[in-house]
Design goal:
Blueprint: H1 6-20, H2 30-34, H3 39-51, E1 54-55, H4 56-63, H5 67-79, E2 83-87, E3 95-99, H6 101-122, H7 127-154, E4 157-158, E5 167-168
Helix pairs in contact: 4-5
């Protein structure tokens, strides 16, 4: 077998990754198919789940829209009971958006559905194969953390290796 170029290997890795979460079993995506939310709404719920309460401006930036557009999207999430708005305790001019129990539950259901798909897949592997997969996943996690740390440095932030989000540097 001939050696593949780095680009060919990257393409192959991406193609194989798609197969892991393929659509060969329609029941695999039940949780996602029953959620009646738009992609921008889901992005907001995922960000709030990962990083906690956020200012409206940060959510607008995430979506690549202006604050009034983000406010409209957020209003629909508030009406649906997925998020709540509140004033920042440090600056009353800033409105923070946080997940409600319902919003958190939706995110947890989606993650649980994905975990179930992977669990069903992993059950078909031998112990030796599963150990190989774990080694590969550990490499991916290490690469992801390295990428995040590099990005944070470029943005002038430091990263706590165990944290989910970068920590802003204090001015010296």
């Amino acid at each position: 077998m001939r050696r593949l170029s780095r680009q060919a290997l990257l393409t192959l890795a991406l193609d194989l990754s798609k197969e892991i979460v393929g659509h060969d079993d329609p029941t695999d995506n039940d949780a996602w198919m029953t959620v009646d939310l738009t992609m921008p709404q889901l992005k907001i719920l995922m960000k709030l789940s990962r990083e906690g309460p956020q200012p409206v401006g940060a959510l607008a930036q995430l979506l690549g829209v202006h604050a009034p557009t983000a406010s409209g999207i957020l209003q629909r999430l508030v009406r649906g009971g997925y998020v709540r708005r509140s004033e920042s305790t440090q600056d009353r001019r800033i409105t923070l958006v946080a997940l409600t129990d319902r919003g958190s539950s939706v995110v947890q259901q989606l993650f649980a559905a994905q975990q179930e798909i992977l669990t069903r897949t992993y059950r078909h592997l031998s112990t030796s194969e599963l150990s190989t997969v774990i080694g590969a996943i550990e490499l991916l996690v290490k690469a992801r953390k390295s990428r995040a740390a590099g990005k944070a440095r470029r943005l002038g932030r430091r990263v706590n290796a165990d944290a989910k989000k970068p920590v802003k540097r204090r001015a010296s």
